[in-house]
Amino acid sequence: MVNYAVPEPYRWDTSFMVFYERLDDEHKGLFQSLFSIGTNRDSKAALKKCQDLMVGHFNYEQTIMSRANYAGFKEHKEHHDGFIAHLGKLSAPVTDEEIFFCKNWLVQHIKNIDFAYRGKL
Ligand SMILES: [Fe+2]
Ligand SMILES: [Fe+2]
Description:
Layout lengths: L20 H19 L4 H24 L5 H16 L7 H18 L8
Helix pairs in contact: 1-2, 1-4, 2-3, 3-4
The site of one fe (ii) ion has 6 residues, from α3 and α4.
């Protein structure tokens, strides 16, 4: 796996495009919600919103992968499940290390794992 740069300031850009409009829009929202945890690290609401958006996005992504009989579905879902379990253990205030872990996870996941379904869904 390639290790991609984490944008600073943390925001989605066109290098993250998967070329499915709803998925790209959801990815933008995930970047925003992680950015917002970084700037409101005491906020339980910001953390909860991020957890809910991740779950919602992963569910939608899995639905369309499964509908397309995408070959990488099972392994892809395992990556999602692992990250949700990790996020579920966090509590506010979230540490710098944790915020960076999550920001980096999303960057690497989109470019190494989500990119593999481009053109196949
Ligand atoms: Fe994914
Ligand atoms: Fe995704």
